[in-house]
Design brief:
Length: 78
């Protein structure tokens, strides 16, 4: 395997893992208040189409600040 294909494969794996994130957001209950996005010290979350979404699960340190601040109990950190 060449170096280029190695990195390509690595990126693909990263994406798959990101989709299987340990951060679970119940978007049905999310009102898009953005509190979690602002509170996360590691810029893990973004506002996507008026609800919270995971932008970079690898940056998450599992501090659970987002869980604590969400007024609708939408976020679970596993
Ligand atoms: S657990 Fe902490 S680092 Fe992870 S998304 Fe929530 S606020 Fe950000
Ligand atoms: S704090 Fe809760 S309700 Fe507000 S954007 Fe984040 S997940 Fe949605």
């Amino acid at each position: 395997m060449g170096l280029r294909s190695f990195f390509k494969k690595d990126k693909k794996q990263e994406k798959t893992t990101d989709e299987d994130s340990h951060i679970d957001i119940n978007v049905d209950d999310c009102d898009g208040c953005e509190k979690c996005v602002i509170a996360c010290p590691n810029n893990v979350l973004i506002l996507d189409d008026e609800s919270s979404a995971v932008n970079n699960s690898f940056g998450c340190k599992r501090c659970k600040v987002c869980m604590a601040i969400c007024p609708n109990d939408c976020i679970t950190i596993n």
